[in-house]
Amino acid sequence: MTEFVTIPAITALCYFAGFICKTLKIEKLDNFIPCICGGLGLILGLVSFYTIPNFIPASNWIDASAIGLASGFAATGVNQIVKQLQALKAGK
Asked: What pTM does this model have?
């Protein structure tokens, strides 16, 4: 059951990291937020694979890296969905 919690947890942490980067209001950092989220997801995937057994649904470190990377990039996608829905709501 814990493998269903892993991916949303990594995505939420990466989303929060992207949110912090956005609130720092450093314009040069804005272009790198997807890379930051992806890199953090990759790191979190590897850390969870090696430190918490059976927490991430991966059989090796490459799978754990891919799951973490995809979860990190998913945080960027979630951000864009929220942003587009807010723009759609404001347009009406």
From this structure: 0.84
